[in-house]
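Sample log: PAS domain S-box-containing protein.
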Amino acid sequence: MTSARVPLGPAAALAFRPLRGRTGLPAVAWIAVLSAAVSVVGAPAHVAGAADVVLGLTTATVLLTRAGRTVVPSGWRWFAAAAVVTGAASAGVPLITGVPASAVLGGGLGHLLTVVALLRLRERSPGGGRAQQVTAAALFVVASLLAVHVVLRPIAGVGSSAALAVAVHVVPVVVALSTAAALVFLGGVAPGRQRVGLLLVGVQSALAGTGVSSVLAWGLDSPELGAWVRPVMGLAAVLLCTACHLDVPRGPAGDPRLWPVGAVGALLPHATALVAGTLFLLQSSVTGAVDRFDLVLAITGLLLVLVHQVVTWRAQHRLTAELLSSQAYFRTLVRSSADPVVILDDRLRVTFASKAVTDLLGHAPDDVLGRCLDEVVHRDDTGHLTDALRGTAPGGVPAVRTARVRHADGSWRLLQATVRDLRDDPDVGAFVLYCRDVTGSGADAASEPALVELALTDPVTGLPNRAALVRRLAALRLEARGRPRALALLGVPGLAGRAPEDAAVALRALTARLVRLLRTEDWLARTKDGDFAVLAHGSIADAEVLAARLVATAGSDLAPSAGVTALPDDLDPGEALRHADLARRAAGPGQVHRYDDAVRQQRDRREALRADLAGALDRGELRLVFQPVVDLVLQRTVTVEALLRWRHPVYGEVSPAEFVPLAEESALITELGRWVLHEACTTVAALPGTELAVAVNVSARQLHGGSLGADVLAALDASGLPSRRLFLELTESMLLDDDAVIEELEALRQLGIRIAVDDFGTGWSSLAYLVGLPVDTLKMDRQFLAGVEHDQQRQALCRAVLHLGASLGLPVVVEGVEGDAEASLLRDMGHRYLQGFALSRPMEAAQLAAGGWPTGLPTAAVAPSPR
């Protein structure tokens, strides 16, 4: 017996001596090494048992000492209890049974206590992901049971020990539950505790391995197999104490819905299921027999894999919808802000610019991406703005600086920028500038005189600009009352499509020609991109003659037109400009029009419609009609296009061509688009026994406003219409050069919604660009059909569009088919999908619900058309 005191005395002294350092890890590590040495040298059972007790007590002491400083102290106290129970049971049970490996029976109780400890350690988190964690844990438990049972079952019949039989059936359950508890903890752990979660998975995996090895060593009577159990137990103790040391509060845990599931927690259940299935198949093929219990576990595991995949898919679908809604919300906030938001990287290059930059500086947001700060800021202001950026403390008080920035037309704008250094923010990592235009506001007195002069001069032509014209008009009201004078407004839209450099050259040349036509007292200004204004002294008839000369001088290639209005003393400058602009709009290309009662009435009608349109939806004046798209092969209607109609209480039926542009001038078009989506989906979803799809037109403002994805998902959810039965129709120009729009449409397509290009072939498309667009259908524009029956070139164009769609794998819908001859000819060409009056006029919702949709060409068009 004296030999037992030789290894025990130093170990016991080390265990109960005051622990060195703050963690106690050195003590646990040394005792783990001694415990491993006891196992390796083959010490007697009572010595090995004493080593187990000392290791358990030391581990428990360290855990209890550290527990008060951890995130959840009660969980670590349960781990301390588990360590004591495991050590005591590991020492006591072998003394009773006489079999060293039978310590696993006592250790099983300690393993179960670790399950309680892990569940107590897990912080409660309201939010998603629970269903995924539950199914993953259930899959892991079943797979572990199958794998361990397949390994241990063959030894159940060895010998006649009832205790061994119990171990064979109990150990798999304990191993599966304890390791699954660690996975559940890892799946819901906060970002600051992920290392703790991984260590605890390692602890439970080590304990599981020792349990299985102990049973195998017991059943196969193999001391060599059980020799490594204590070294692994010692390693588990060290890992457990390390995890306790790391589990300290680290600040706010963040949004629980964003807690990540570690790769280990996500992959281990599936890896275990793969291993278990492989072992099951190998055993079945080798023995030629299938155990019923193993078969039940295998089938249950397969079902759980399926359930877990379904739960994961639903969670991803919900997350996609939430992400679309969140992106749309914040994108709308940024885009709708009147003040531009600009983001700069460490090198002070622009990485993001909101759409308000266009209104402020005339540049499209994509045009300024990648440009350095000194390329757009006045050289005299670059230094102090750069110093402000470099000197701003991360997360500190925002700096406010003023600088001159070049407009796209060459003029300078005085901008005030609030600078935030968010480089330490992982979600931003850049400088953020919130800008506003303070030109002429007195924000920088030193710069204002020069800026005022610049602000009143057009930088391209050197003429007075619109601001100067307004000042001149106001001054004339006071200088020369009673003298006849008029205002002529010349528009040259033909410059709009030219490159900026070419447009500038043409503008300067045109200005020189216009100046030569002016009389001594006439005054010329440039009001905006393609407009010039002339203050003409004399009667309005004189002004009309002058305007006609200006139009003739501009040349037909620029499609000029002019409007003229008299300037009575009581007409303010803003109203005068509006009168001249309305007259110019009423004039066709190459024409001059005087502002008169007809123009006024047209304006009044337009203003009345604009005012009434705002409340038309609430008053129930708006409705949808549905025009069928017919599949000539299947001889049935496959889609209906939802078209908006307005029955005005005074003007009667108002053409969409008249009221839709009015809605597009404001955010009203987005509200109308949202209503159309909801009504169209609801109407078609209510049709019984049909797979009819519905197509809805999307406006540019709704598409670029950032809320389209959320609006579409809301309409589908409210109506119950399957996403595959919804088409969104967009014009070609809306899809060009806007990566954000293309990404949003691609996300909608991933949900099953289909995208159609409306008015295809109107001049924007190119085959190379179409290949990369998220498009499912092409709708050929009506302009191809004008005189198609007798025009061989137009027939060739129709065939070319059909072949283009076929080469891209896209169906082509021909819209605007109005005559029977057109319909028959298009059918003979091979066009399958037709839409237009020749097949059906738009149907009211009640007619649509009653059925009777067109199934093919009208009778008059059925006969083959002459070639």
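Observation: The CA atoms of residues 192 and 250 lie 6 Å apart.
Observation: The longest helix spans residues 292-336.
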